[in-house]
Amino acid sequence: MTPRPRLVACAAAGGAVGAVLRWSAGELAPAADGFPWTTFAINVTGSLLLALLPALALARGSRAWAVALGPGVLGGFTTLSAYAEEGRALLAGGSTGTALAYLLGTLAACWVAVLLGAAATRRQVPEEDLG
After folding, report:
1. pLDDT, greater one: 51 or 2
2. Element (H, E) at 25
3. In whole angstroms, what is the distance from residue 42 CA to residue 116 CA?
4. What is the mean pLDDT of the chain?
5. 82 is in which domain, residue-wise?
């Protein structure tokens, strides 16, 4: 299946916005104590927002907005590559405990954020509207 050019443009524009937001967060709050708090916060926040996205009427009512906000903005905002690289760097620097706390803690916190967001969405949106 070939994606429609309009949806590709929506994802690309949203992705650019999300990437700039992620970069800006890193500039405003760079890691200072050896733990990648900014990337941790970005990924947990992005996971929560992605799970809440179906509660947003705009995203439910428009495929273009759903694509722009979901895989676009939130896909550009969250970052598996920085998460993996920061974990690798911690391990390479001999900070095994911090690396494990970061890698496993991020997964656990993102999972909890998705569960909380999904539960909140189910409470706010009738099941038939979630599709």
Report:
1. 51
2. helix 5-28
3. 16
4. 93
5. 5-25+36-130
